[in-house]
Amino acid sequence: MANGCEICCEILIAILIPPLGVCLKHGCCTVEFCLCLILTLLGYIPGIIYALYAIVYVDRDQFFDEYRRPLYSQASAV
């Protein structure tokens, strides 16, 4: 879990360069990063809005726990 200083730095980076802020939080080859890059290229303000949303609200750990992905565990066993 990130502390307050880390979140403030990520938000500041997301306001200055939105895709970089999302890249630092989620990684370079993720859906969040690609979507933020596309929105930033289409318009700077939509990129900032999505970057702030992706940094503050999106928690990727809840989508990748073992309980929620039974298809991955079955596919590797076959």
Describe the structure.
The chain is mainly α and 78 residues long. It has one domain. 71% of the residues lie in helices and 0% in strands. The protein has 5 helices and no strands. The longest helix is centred in the first third of the chain and has 13 residues.
Outline of this structure?
Keywords: Membrane, Transmembrane, Transmembrane helix. The chain has 78 residues and is mainly α.
Give descriptors for this structure.
single chain, mainly alpha, 78 residues, 0% strand
Secondary-structure blueprint of this entry?
Blueprint: H1 4-16, H2 18-26, H3 31-42, H4 44-56, H5 70-77
Helix pairs in contact: 1-2, 1-4, 2-3, 2-4, 3-4
Distance between the termini: 35 Å
The largest sheet, given as strand count, sense and whether it forms a barrel, is: none
Low-confidence stretches: none
Report the radius of gyration as a whole number of Å. 15 Å
String of helices and strands? HHHHH
Relative helix content = over 70%
Mean pLDDT: 80
Strand residue percentage: under 5%
SS summary, helix count: 5
Structural class category: mainly alpha
Count of individual domains: 1
Protein name: UPF0057 membrane protein
Transmembrane segments: 33-58
Pfam family, one: Pmp3
Organism: Cucurbita argyrosperma subsp. sororia
